[in-house]
Amino acid sequence: MEHPIQRFLIWWERAIKNSPLKQKSAVCVSTINNEGFPAARFVDLKSVSNDGIVFCTYLDSAKGKEISICNKVALTAWWDHIGYQIRVTGRATPLPDEEADRYWKTRTTDAQITTHVCEQSQPLANPNELVDKVAAINRDNSLNPSIRPINWGGYSVVAHSIEFLTFKEDRLHLRELFTLNDGVWTKSFLQP
Ligand SMILES: Cc1cc2nc3c(=O)[nH]c(=O)nc-3n(C[C@H](O)[C@H](O)[C@H](O)COP(=O)(O)O)c2cc1C
Predict the structure, then answer these.
(1) Which residues span the domain enclosing 38?
(2) 102 labelled ligand-binding
């Protein structure tokens, strides 16, 4: 049987190729907030392998705090130009420091500075405050942006289920569900 992670990689490659989108790898990550509501937002998909599906963020953001309480998450992607939807459920764990450092180094200096300046998910009285902070850092060179802030890293989601939907114009979408039980993936179909 085809491995669902292999399929994910093949679909992701197709999604990136000829994508009309600027943000070609955005996926929706859903967590559970402290009131029991789902909390969903887009992040940038960084890598997909048998070890996990990786995205990067602030570890002390709302999503980071939510994951520290309940690490069950969902990831959802829709790639309109090829008609593919992927839905993942799984458990998120923080990336080891070396891996977080590797992703940090892929960021531009501007993105690193912005990341240093922001306290993601915290209230902000006036958006100009952050513009001013970035400008001040650029002016006085007081920060070495290449050093990763300790509150920034990533999460690796180890999948428990992965559903692949192929959109059909007649609405008879093909839904293929892969579920992991005792280390073995099984495949079934779902009605659209
Ligand atoms: C296309 C797109 C990509 C994004 N990528 C990321 C990302 O990779 N990491 C991140 O922390 N936030 C990213 N964001 C911002 C998040 O959607 C969200 O606003 C932020 O992470 C704060 O979420 P939280 O307060 O629920 O933790 C992205 C937003 C969009 C629209």
Answers:
(1) 4-108+149-190
(2) no
